[in-house]
Structure prediction request, 165 residues.
Amino acid sequence: MKAAERKSEFEQLLDELEAALNEGKRVPLTDLVMVNEAAILDLFDHLRRALPDELQKAAWIIKDREKILADARAIAEKTVLEAQGRAGQLVSQDEVTHQAQARAGEIVAEAQRKAAEMKDGAEAYAGDVLMRFEGELLKVLEVIRHGKERLNLKVRHGAPRGKTS
Prediction:
């Protein structure tokens, strides 16, 4: 899959917004840029509609993390019960009993280790995804702030609304 195909609708809209700002006409001797207000406002509308999809994806990731943790706990509990059952069957001889208890302890320890690894992995994955999502949201907020500042400067300097050239 190519990088462009992996971009979410949200990221594509951010790219379009940035392109619209970069393509705007510069006001000589200032750092102001004149842009097509209708196009920018249209992009903001699209961003607002795309944002709930991104939030839904984040919620799905959190839900998936909880399922992974629940599965890990269930596997650990099942392994512990199997180990206890096997240990109970081997109680008939003293030496066998000692071996069974040692093996049961190993199985329980291994199950607990695996459960902890699965939990740590799931938490790391969810944390990474949420961190990336937070970064994207911060970028959007920065673009929105920047756009609002430029629009406010335009309004304050008496530029007619809706006209760009």
Q: What stands out?
A: The chain is about 80% helix and 0% strand. The longest strand covers residues 25-26.
